[in-house]
Structure formats: C-alpha cells, structure tokens
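Students often ask why inverse folding is considered easier than folding. One informal answer: many sequences map to the same fold, so there is more than one right answer. In these notes we will look at a single instance of the problem. The structure comes first.
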C-alpha cells in the first residue's frame, strides 16, 4: 500500500502521538515513517541504557554542531533519537511540562490558542500518572508516568542539602508551584522506559489502518502546485513515492524537519538556490530561531562507591543490576541517572525559576564521552529562557548529508552571565554538609571562585542539555513558519507536530510538551477529516 489518508514523517514524540491517535479511528489510514528501527530492544527499555546510547551513534543521529568562536572553539554535541520513539527513546525520561507562564507567553507571541489553559487538557489527555487523577494530573493517558523505582541514597542527600541551604523542596514539578528541588517523575512503567512509541505505537502495531515503515528515510516532499501530495522515501536502497489523500505531518524534530522542508523547496530562497533546489515557497525563517538550554555540568569524585563509577565493584554492581532488572525490573538499572533536580531563581524578584538542576548519580563529562576511573556524582545547571539564537542550514541537497547546526550559544552575553551565576549557586548547594560523605575532589573548577576565573571554563565546557526547539516557529505574523493550528504557511496539506514549532523554549524538559503538541495536532486533523 502506497496511498494513505495521512502520512506522518518521523516517529518521535510528536509523530508517535499523532499517528497513534489518528489510527484510533478505523476509517482513517495512517502511515508512520521512521528512519530508525522499531525501538523495542532491551537497551532502550532498560532505563540505564541511556549511558550507552547518549554518547554514541547507537540509535542516535549524534549531531556535531559546528564549533563556535563564542565558546572558545569547544565542540558541541547533539544526541537525537534514531528509532521509533525518537529522542523519547534515548532521553533521561523526566516528565516535566514547563512553567504555565511559558505557554501564556506563546500566546502573547502570536501563538493563538496556546495559553496554559489551552494546553493543559492535552497534557492531561496524554498522561497516565501512577499517582492517579487530580486537578493537574491524569491517570488514564497512554504515557506512563511514575515515581523513581530504586533511588540512590545520594539523591535523598541532595534534597537534604537543599533544605540546609533554605532551597524549597517539592514533590511535584508539574503541580501548583514549579519552584523547588525534588525527585523527578519519570516516563517509566514497571521499571521500563515508556517512550512515545511504547505509549502510542507498539501496543497498536496490529491495527489494519496503521502502517509503520521503519528504516525508511524521507527524501523530499512532492507538491502539486502548492499542495503537498506525497513524499519520496528511500528504503532497502530503493526510492518510492507515498501519497496522502488529506495531509502530511512532519515530526522529525528541530533539526530534521527544517532539513526536509528545505530539501523540498520550502525555506530561505537564496539558500535553496545555492544548493540547486527549486523554490516552492520562500520561507526565510525555516531553520532560524534555534534555541536550546545552554548547560554546565559540575562533577565531583566520590568518597563512597554507592554511586556509578568505573571500578571493580562498580562493574560488579552493573552485573547485579542487570540480573535485578531482568528478573524484577528493579535495582540500579531503573535509574534515570538524573533522579533529582529542581527549578530555582537566580534572584528573588524573578517571576518564575530561570535555572534548572539535574543531579546525576555518576560523573558526567562531555556527554559521558570522557570517562573517569573511580566513582563520582555531577550536577547540571541550565539557563531556562536563553536569549541566544542559532540556526540550521543545509550542507548540500543530499538527504543523506546531515545539516549544518550552529547552536549560537553565548551570542547574547546575558546567557553567559546567568549561567555563571547559576554555577556559583549550584556549587554552594553541592558543598552543603549533607553531601560531605560523598564529596571528594571537584573536577575542572577546583579553586576557581571569581567570575573572571569561572567564565573561561564555562565558555569552554558549556553545551546542550538536549532541548533544541524553534526552527519552524509558530505564530500569527508573516514570518512564522506555521500558524496556530500547525499548518505550514504558504502551502497546503502540510503540518508540523514537533518541538521545532515552539516560538520560545519552555522552562523545562521538552518531551512532554512535544507529545502535547502531537495530541493537539491529531485532534485538529480528526476534526477536519
């Protein structure tokens, strides 16, 4: 079958939600295209598998953004999931929606109908929280959300450290108040990762109206005048054309969606012509407005060995963890690594938290690509609403060539100033007495105190915390790539349902909001079918 009512391009968080919801109606035929595999293997289902996936090309696009002068030449890294489930199959599984004011700001920026009041019902529709129903939570949705299954002692010590420093402690970052430090809830079910594919696609692969094409690479969209009618894909080494009776939905994420648009003739006209691509619609902002939470990781060696590390006992613990996970779905390998963290203000007069912590029960150095002997712990701090902007551009007109990514970190020095302040606040917390039984040598920043001493190392080592958004911005102005119902401006029959449409990055992790976007898109598609 090569003709469908709807074709969804990209099996990530947004795409799985769209395809899964559309295929609930047996009268609608849906095709979901994914460049990677099915996303069912053990390294994905085992939560701690992230440690092997994140720094490698395993199930991972593993993008390398270009070096930036603003960062003194440090090399960036952008892991993105290459499998059904997309980045929800390789992330830290943290269930965070962001601050309610973030969505009210989307509305103010021209994303009509995307205020907090508008989006909350779709968060609730997707959420299956083990805590059950409440005013702000749902226990019935397909995305399983649960509390940490086997937390480490140091994670509780981190909360004690917060209390010692008069930092608020909370048990729900998605409750009435986001501010505070606490345990993250996670997208897991019974000790297994619940990716978007596990939530929306894997249970329904036998639906006769749902066709899932894995290891299938999108090449370019097909247009009849200005209407998207199909897509050319490549699988098993051969090109073929799939056609859509109604609409095509792009859900490749902040890097792959603008790439496919530009390869198909939608993007900055001059840039497309430079690569020999015929212009279907001149859309200057495709690939622009790239945002991400610029992040710094502070790491410590540990006196105790009950955290992850490279040692004989650490290796033995991993083998014990594998046995526990296989037999009971409990133990060390159910960890997200970032078990605790929080949202804090850099100053008391901020209207909401502007910094986020991810406290990690192991040493994280260069995305876990640089390993250290022994045991340790780390803490991330990131800037939640960065002012800097980057861009995504084509390297060539070949779909097999990865895009050129310029993250633009620190092009606005306000981000560096805030991150430096955040590093100092975080360090105070990490030196609280509660963490003394674990705390040994501080890596990279030992003895550095002043802004002048810290800023060069922050510039060099800061990088992503894996939340790129914004490259197909939603809005009501002439420059917006999509309108408030996710329809691509300037053409027909084409929508986008992924993080690329966010006009501004939300103050938190981006998986749950992207699934919410997919849920909304599916409702609009069903209403017009």
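Output (designed amino acids):
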């Amino acid at each position: 079958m090569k003709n469908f009512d709807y074709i969804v391009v990209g099996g990530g968080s947004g795409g799985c939600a769209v395809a899964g919801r559309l295929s609930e109606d047996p009268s609608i035929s849906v095709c979901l295209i994914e460049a990677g595999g099915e996303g069912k293997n053990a390294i994905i289902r085992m939560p701690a598998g992230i440690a092997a996936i994140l720094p490698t090309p395993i199930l991972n696009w593993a993008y390398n953004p270009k070096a930036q002068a603003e960062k003194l030449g440090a090399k960036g890294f952008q892991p993105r999931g290459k499998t059904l489930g997309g980045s929800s199959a390789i992330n830290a599984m943290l269930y965070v929606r962001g601050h309610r004011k973030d969505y009210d700001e989307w509305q103010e920026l021209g994303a009509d109908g995307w205020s907090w009041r508008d989006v909350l019902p779709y968060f609730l529709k997707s959420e299956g929280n083990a805590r059950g129903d409440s005013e702000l939570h749902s226990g019935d949705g397909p995305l399983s959300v649960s509390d940490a299954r086997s937390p480490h002692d140091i994670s509780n010590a981190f909360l004690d450290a917060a209390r010692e420093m008069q930092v608020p402690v909370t048990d729900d970052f998605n409750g009435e108040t986001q501010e505070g430090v606490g345990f993250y809830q996670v997208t897991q079910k019974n000790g297994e990762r619940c990716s978007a594919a596990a939530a929306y696609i894997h249970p329904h692969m036998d639906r006769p109206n749902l066709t899932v094409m894995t290891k299938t690479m999108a090449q370019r969209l097909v247009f009849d005048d200005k209407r998207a009618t199909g897509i050319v894909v490549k699988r098993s080494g051969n090109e073929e054309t799939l056609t859509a009776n109604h609409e095509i939905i792009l859900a490749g994420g902040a890097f792959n969606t603008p790439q496919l648009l530009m390869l198909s003739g939608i993007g900055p006209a001059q840039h497309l012509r430079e690569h020999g691509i015929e212009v279907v619609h001149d859309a200057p902002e495709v690939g622009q407005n790239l945002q991400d939470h610029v992040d710094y990781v502070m790491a410590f060696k540990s006196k105790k060995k009950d955290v992850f590390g490279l040692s004989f006992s650490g290796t033995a613990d991993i083998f014990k963890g594998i046995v526990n996970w296989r037999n009971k779905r409990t133990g060390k390998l159910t960890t997200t690594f970032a078990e605790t963290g929080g949202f804090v203000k850099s100053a008391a007069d901020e209207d909401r938290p502007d910094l986020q912590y991810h406290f990690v029960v192991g040493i994280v150095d260069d995305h876990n690509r640089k390993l250290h002997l022994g045991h340790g712990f780390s803490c991330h701090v990131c800037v939640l609403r960065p002012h800097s902007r980057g861009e995504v551009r084509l390297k060539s007109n070949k779909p097999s060539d990865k895009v050129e990514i310029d993250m633009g970190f620190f092009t606005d020095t306000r981000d560096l100033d805030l991150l430096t302040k955040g590093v100092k606040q975080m360090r105070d917390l990490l030196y609280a007495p509660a963490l003394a039984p674990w705390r040994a040598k501080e890596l990279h920043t030992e003895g550095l105190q002043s802004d002048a001493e810290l800023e060069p190392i922050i510039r060099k080592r800061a990088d992503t915390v894996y939340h790129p958004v914004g490259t197909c911005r939603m809005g009501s102005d002439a420059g917006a790539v999509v309108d408030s119902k996710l329809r691509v401006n300037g053409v027909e029959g084409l929508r986008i349902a992924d993080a690329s449409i966010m006009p501004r990055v939300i103050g938190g992790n981006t998986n749950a909001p992207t699934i919410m976007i997919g849920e909304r898109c599916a409702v609009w598609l069903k209403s017009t079918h």
